[in-house]
Amino acid sequence: MAYTKRFDGRKFDETRDIKAEVGIIPNADGSAMFAFGDTVAVAAVYGPKIMHPQHSQDPKKGTLRVTYDMLSFSVPERKKPGPSRRSQEISKVTEWALSPVVNLDEFPNTVVDVHIMIFQANASTRCAGINAAAIALAHAGVPMSDLVSSVSVGKMDETIVVDVIKEEEDYEEGEGATDIATAFTSNSGKLTLLQLDGKISPKKLDEAVEKARDACKKIYELQKKTLKEAKE
Amino acid sequence: MLAKKFMSFRKKHLRRQKNKMMISNLTKKRVHDYLLEGKREGRGLLDYREIEIELGVSKNAEGSARVKVGKTEVVAGVKLDVTEPYTDHEDEGTLITTLELLPLSSPRFEAGPPKIEAIEIARIVDREVRESKFIDFKKLCIKKGEKVWGIFLDIFSINDDGNLLDAAGIAAVAALRNAKMPKYDEKEDKVEYGELTNKGMPLNKETPIILTFHKIGNKIFIDPGQEEEKASEGRISFGFLDGNINACQKGNDAPLKLEELSEILETAEKKAEEMTEKIDKAIEKALKARENRK
Amino acid sequence: MSEEREKVIPGEILETGEDWLPGEGTRRDGKNIVASRFGLKEIQNRLVKIIPLSGVYIPRRGNLVIGVVTDINFSGWNMDINAPYTSFLPLAECPRFFNKEDLAEYFDIGDMVVCKVKAVKRKGVDLSLKSIGLGKIEDGMIVYINSNKVPRVIGKEGSMIKIIKDATKCDIVVGQNGVVWIKGKTAENEMLAKETILFITGKSYLSGLTEKVQEFLSKKFGEKK
To answer: Residue C162's pLDDT is what?
Structure first.
C-alpha cells in the first residue's frame, strides 16, 4: 500500500510546527532552542576562547568544536548518560555542517564550543540541533557569512515527505522508509550536510534534496525572526 | 523597599553580568565583606532565590521536571524499566540516581565522564531519597525474586549560577511526583513505553528536601550565587523529611565549630519546614498547570 | 532619530549598490553589502557597518582594561583580560621603582589591575602600566558587562558615566574589556551604581537612553526617602 496519508495528517511537504527561542542559557555566550513539533534541541555556544590543550590549537585560525548528545530521558527507552558512538558521529557531521559559514580567521589558537542537547526526541534530532546551533552561534556574536538551516526528508515507499517523525522512520511497507538528513547555507543554498539510510534511486534523492531546500526557507525565516526579536 | 525593587528588577532582565574571568581576590573579598556585614543583593543570608518548578517537560520520560533557583536551572527525568531485584532485597524495586554537569551549563564544566563534583551531588540526592523512605520500594515489586520496577533518576544541569545540589534535590523530587507508571505487559514481559497508566509512583506524602548551609568567616548563608559559592569556605548539607534528618554531608575543607553546628541545626529545622511547604506548593501549582496543558 | 536601530543577522543583505562601502562587521558580495555578524545596522554617510550586541572582547591598542593576574614569572605577570588572547604585563612596562625581586609583592595571583593595551600581536597582548591612573585595585566592587556595551555605559565624551558618578557619588573606572570597577562611600551607593550600569546594558539599543537613566536614578532616590 503506497503512503498516501501521513501518520499525523500533514501534507507531504509540510514540516511540523516549528518553534525557536534565543538566550535561554544565561551563562552561555549565545544560546537557542529549536523544535520540530515534539523534537526539542537546545544549543549553547562558548567562545571564542583560548583552546586547551595547547597542542590542539591552530595557529592560523580558531577551531569550531561541536558536541551533540541527548538527555537520557529524551527517548522512550532510556539512553545511558554520556556520549555514544552515534552522538560522536552526529557531533562531527554537525561541525562540518556549520563550519563553512563560521569565520574564525581573526581568532587564532582559540576554540568556539557548541554544545547541543536533545531534550525530547521524535526523530530529526540532528536537524533540530543544527538549527538551534546556527541561531546560538549568531547570538554569540561569532563572525558568520550566513546561517545554516536543516531539515530531514524521507522516502516512504515511493513518496517523498518533509520532516520525518519516528513513526515514519519505522515504516516498513513497500520499500520501507529512507531517512535523509540535510542542511543548507541559508542564503546561498549550498549543501553542508547529507546523510541517508534506506533505499533510494539517485533521481529520487535529487528530488528529495530539492524539497528539503524549499522547506529550509521557512526554517530560515523563523531563525531570522528569533534573532531579530532577541531581547538583548 | 530597596531590596524589593532589586528583586523585581532581577526578574525583568534575563541576561545579566557573566563572569568568565578567573575570580579575583577583590571579588572574593567583596563577597566576603558583604556577607560578613549580612548584606546581600535583594535578599537575606538565609533566603533562597525565587524557585520555579515546571513538570512534564520531556514527553518520553515517565516523569520529568525543570527547576529554577534564581538563574540556576536543572532538569530531572524518571525512566522506569522492569528488571531483576538485588538478591538481598528480593521484593523491592531499585533506584539509580545519576547527575551530569553539562558543559552547556557553564564554561567550567568539561565534556567527559562525571567528575567528583557531579558524583557527590548524585550520591547525596540518592541518599536523601532513599533514607527518607520517600519511595515505597516494596510496592514496586512485580514478582518477588524475579521482576521489579527499576527507577532511573537522571539529573542534568542546564545553567549553573550556584547551589546546584539543592536545585537537583528539588528537581529529583518534582520529577518523581510527576511520574506515572507505564503499561507493563506481564505475559510478554514488555514495558509499553509511551503508554502511561494513571497510576503515580508509590511515594510518601511528605516531601524530602536538601538544604545546604555555607560558611564564610563566622557567617552562615544559604543558596549562594556563582560568586558567593566560589567565595564559600565550607558547606554542610542536610536532607530533611518531616522534621527528621535522613542524610548529611559536610563538604569543602573549612572546619566547623560545634557551636556553629548547633546554630546551623537550629536554623535548618525551621528552614526545612518553610522550604518544604514552599516546594510542595510549587509542585502542586505545577501539577495543576500540567493538567491544564493537556 | 527616535527609531530603534535594526537588528540584522549574518548573511543578510544590508544595502545594494556600488556607492555603499563595507564597514566593520560587513563585507561586499557582488553589488550587495552583507552582514558578517549579528548586531545593529548603522549607516554613516556611505559606510554601512554593524554595531555588535554580543561577542568577545577584542583588544585594541590604547584600550584601558581591568584584568586579573593568573600567574607570575621572573619578568612579569600573566593576566586574564577576558579576551581570547594570552595577555602579559612585563616588568619593563611598570614604573621604574618596581623591584624585580618582589613581583608578587606588587601584584599577586588573583589581584585586579587596571592597565593599558600596549600592543596586540599574533602571539598575544602586551599590557602596560606606564600611564596615570593605572595600577592595582584595592577596594570597591567589580561589575562584569558585555564589552560591546561599554560605549553606551561611557556615553558620548563620558557623559553617561558622569551622570552615574555624580548621582551615586562613586568613583567608576570602565575597562574596555567589560570589567567595571566601582568604589563608593557606602555599599548601597555602590550597588546603585551597579544596578544603573546593568540597567543601561539591558537597554542599550534604545535611543533617549540618557533621559531613561535619569528617570531610573530619580526613582531609586525617591524610594530611599
So the answer is: 93
Residue C125: Cβ-neighbour burial (10 angstroms; 0-12, 13-18, 19+): buried
Is pLDDT of A32 > 50? yes
User: Is the Cα dihedral C163, C164, C169, C175 positive or negative?
Assistant: negative
As for the ipTM of the complex, it is 0.92
Q: pLDDT tier at B3 (50, 70, 90 boundaries)?
A: very low
Q: Is B25 close to C144, i.e. CB distance below 8 A?
A: no
How does pLDDT run across B183-219, given as a tens digit for each residue? 999 899 999 998 899 999 999 999 999 999 999 888 8
Distance in angstroms (rounded) separating the CA atoms of residues A97 and A110: 20
Percentage helix, strand, coil, to 5, in chain B? Answer: 35, 30, 35
Task: Write the residue in A38, A46, A121 that is nearest to B107 by C-beta.
Answer: A46
Burial degree of B116 (CB within 10 A; 0-12, 13-18, 19+): exposed
- In this predicted structure, what is the pLDDT of residue B230? 86
Strand order in the sheet with C141-144: C141-144, C179-183, C171-174
A148-190 pLDDT, tens per residue? Answer: 999 999 999 899 999 999 999 999 888 889 999 999 999 999 9
Q: Round to whole Å and give the CA distance between C71 and C77.
A: 6
**Start and end residues for every CATH 2.40.50.140 domain found in chain C:** 64-136
CATH tag, A18-228: 3.30.230.70
Whether the CB of C85 is below 8 Å from some CB of chain A: the reply is yes
CB-CB under 8 Å, A42 with B102: no
Closest partner residue to B5 (CB to CB) among C137, C143, C223 is C223
Hey, what CATH topology would domain B43-293 get?
Answer: Ribosomal Protein S5; domain 2 (3.30.230)
Is the pLDDT confidence value at A100 over 80? yes
pLDDT score, position B283: 96
Phi first, then psi, for residue B117 (nearest 5°) are -60, -45
What is the model's pLDDT at position B252?
87
In sequence order, the β-bridge partners of residue B96 are B152
Rounded to whole angstroms, the Cα distance separating B175 from B96 reads 14
CATH architecture of C7-52: Beta Barrel (2.40)
For B135, which DSSP code? B
The position carrying cell 548539607 is B237
**Would an 8 Å CB–CB cutoff place B15 in contact with chain C?**
yes
